[in-house]
Amino acid sequence: MSRLSILVLHGPNLNLLGQREPGIYGSVTLEKINQQLLSLAEKLQCDIACYQSNHEGNLVDTIQEALDCHDGIVINAAAYTHTSVAIRDALAAVAIPAVEVHLSNIYRREDFRHHSFIAPIVVGQISGFGAQSYSLGLQALVNHLQTQT
């Protein structure tokens, strides 16, 4: 059996982690999150590719390009979670199992953050555990993929 390949997508403003509203998003940088994920991926015996963009179209393109390259997607679409039908449609189109993650608990925040266009089409959603949300999402996705084969 070949190693699983997971795409980790980070949406807008996540490149500012560590300096952006640390009371909400914590002090861990995106680079550190990616390093933690790479280490965890080795333990889980899977490969990951991490990508961040502030641009909706770039995220859509990357999701579409994942079709022939990746077995699963961990996505923090950030603000696009609540606004982007395009990202939702791209995820639905490729039909690659995905897990939605958020650093903060979106349901304890402003009302507009309570709706996710992505949630209805993903395997699951993890929010509120800071940087650990990514690790939990990766573990859950790998477990899901391994039990589906």
Task: Describe this protein's structure.
With 149 residues, this protein is of the alpha/beta class. Strands 2-1-3-4-5 form a five-stranded parallel β-sheet, with helices on both faces. The termini are close together. Helix 2 (30-44) runs parallel beside helix 5 (132-148). It has helices at residues 22-25, 30-44, 56-65, 85-94, 132-148, and strands at 4-10, 46-52, 72-76, 98-102, 124-127. The chain has a single domain, classed as Dehydroquinase, class II (Rossmann fold). The model has no long low-confidence stretch (mean pLDDT 92).
SSE arrangement:
Layout: E1 4-10, H1 22-25, H2 30-44, E2 46-52, H3 56-65, E3 72-76, H4 85-94, E4 98-102, E5 124-127, H5 132-148
Parallel strand pairs: 1-2, 1-3, 3-4, 4-5
Helix pairs in contact: 2-5, 3-4
Descriptive keywords:
149 residues, alpha/beta, Rossmann fold, five-stranded parallel sheet, 5 helices
Quick synopsis:
The protein has 149 residues and is of the alpha/beta class. The protein has five helices and five strands.
Widest sheet: strand order? 2-1-3-4-5
Query: Helical element count?
Result: 5
Question: Could you spell the SSE succession in H and E letters?
Answer: EHHEHEHEEH
Query: From the helix content, strand content and strand pairing, which structural class follows?
Result: alpha/beta
Low-pLDDT residue intervals, each spanning 5 or more residues: none
- End-to-end C-alpha gap: 10 Å
CATH topology: Rossmann fold
Query: In CATH's first tier, which class applies?
Result: Alpha Beta
Question: Mean of the pLDDT scores?
Answer: 92
Largest sheet: 5 strands, parallel
Looking at the overall shape, the CATH architecture is 3-Layer(aba) Sandwich
Number of strands: 5
